[in-house]
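Risk register update: the risk of archive-format incompatibility is retired. Evidence:
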Amino acid sequence: MAPGRIVVSGAGVISSIGAGVEDFERALFQGTSGIRTDGSNGAQVTAADVAGFTPQQWLGNKGIRVLDRSARLLCVATHLALEGQGPARPAEGDDGLGMICGTMFGGLHSIVSFDWSGLTDGPSYVNPMEFPNTVINSPAGQAAIKFKLRGINSTVCAGLASGLYAIHYGAEALRLKRARVLLAGGVEELCEESLLGFRKTEVVSTVGRVRPFSRESDGTVPGEGSALLVLETAETAAARGVTPWARVVGFGCSHDARAISAYDPSAEGATAAMELALESAGVTPEEVGGVIAAAGGNRAGDAMEARALSKVFGQRLARLPVTAPKAALGEAMGASGALAALVGVLALKRGMAPPTAGCEGADYGLSLSRQPVPLEGDFVLVNAVSCDGNNASLVLGPADGGGR
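Archived output:
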């Protein structure tokens, strides 16, 4: 491998379709959906949540009480990522091992609960033990404490694109030799407050399904989870005796905010992000074998992404495999980009584009995969578009440098 290549040598994930890469991959390629309706609390709630989440089975009981749901999800993903490295896992306390975490809200329930207590009972009556969970970088900090991650620890907030930004941030830190191994990805929790936010903004599907790139779609479904990629240079992976899964080849981003919660119908920002990602990777549109789309059932957002894809790929788009993971995972906000990146890595490992769960066809001249289908090239393009104007695209390639 050429010097300076950033490779993905493992991952940890917990989501509505499975915990651990093996279970996640199996469910993904079977087209399993994590969206379910729960009426146990008196109200019917449709969401792609991590049902029956019990972090103790991975983390034990020690220190769990002080962690909120976001921190618990991220700690489980961290545990699974490190355990997946086997005997080659970095040493505990290694100052070259760090974390870059993307999130949109962090521990939202902790923030609201603490603030509400201060407003209703008065500042003198808030619980100081709850304050650490109110800062947005709390999940990453708690994971660093629990797993003795002594290296870089940063939190990236870029709306629905946070997870992809975090992976790029991590790759650049490795290129600059500011770390040896980084866990990079995202986390987001579902809680009463986030569910209320989804309902208030009227973006939730009334039929409880995500229909990506469909003109009949009536909205998205709330989701949650955490995904972390293990990033390092090819040289570090070789020295540790680890076989990489894929490599990070290029990244592009652009901002085209028109309002706090509106997509730009011209798709100029999304198009620019994809073009910049391909340019930085030195990859032509013809070499892209598949797209992991950001589409989550929002008609305006999906139409914008489809328009951008059409501008980038032209007539080839009709036969290019496109996967929309949010059909299975819901809108996991700051974690969505990281989950999509993991889907891209698994697609490259298999040489197959996963199906889009429950796919009933797509508009805009797109070819959503209903069954796993072979990739049409050596590279995968992963998209994240956000209603606040953030657009990001990541290019992933084969670990061995094939195609270049």
